[in-house]
Amino acid sequence: MVRFKNRYITVEITSPLIPENKPLALKSKIFHDTVLDKIQQLHGDFGIAAVRTGFLTKYCNENTRIAILRSRHGPHKFVTSSLPFITKIGKLDVSLRTLHIGATLKHTFKYILKHQRNYLDSMWSKLKTDEERKNLEAAVMDFTKTDVSINIENIA
């Protein structure tokens, strides 16, 4: 039995057209397909064949604009080299910034927790009521924004 090493790539999605306090209308399936299309375009059949096995979008939060991609160790270099070249996701103009590459999901979530806490502190002063603050905190600290259907589809 062989153990497969994975890499978890944390990506920040920024859009110049949508203000930072508004959530992006971004589905993880569209983001997943866009990344695969860009890998196909840049690295060809070899790149897409290497990446496709074990490639998943684990987490996508529209409020903090953070996504986690899982890829196997080795082909993760195809993924990371393709991310800066993605300028459109669906009809949305975006730019992607790689925040963190981790070996375990636990450490990746620790990094995201720290990053989102900083984001929450910066947005806290812009909100007026306690209700808005509680809603933002619930949305930012929600780690359940994974699209289960795409993950089951790619495992089977």
UniProtKB/TrEMBL annotation:
Q: Which family does it belong to?
A: Belongs to the eukaryotic/archaeal RNase P protein component 2 family.
Q: InterPro entries under this entry?
A: Pop5/Rpp14/Rnp2-like (IPR002759), RNase_P/MRP_POP5 (IPR016819)
Q: What does this protein do?
A: Component of ribonuclease P, a protein complex that generates mature tRNA molecules by cleaving their 5'-ends.
GO BP annotations of the record are:
tRNA 5'-leader removal
Keyword vocabulary terms for this entry: Nucleus, rRNA processing, tRNA processing
Subcellular localization, per the record?
Answer: Nucleus, Nucleolus
According to the UniProt record, one GO cellular component term is: ribonuclease P complex
Keyword field contains tRNA processing: yes
Coarse class of the primary localization is nucleus
The name this protein goes by in its record? Ribonuclease P/MRP protein subunit POP5
The organism encoding this protein is Parnassius apollo
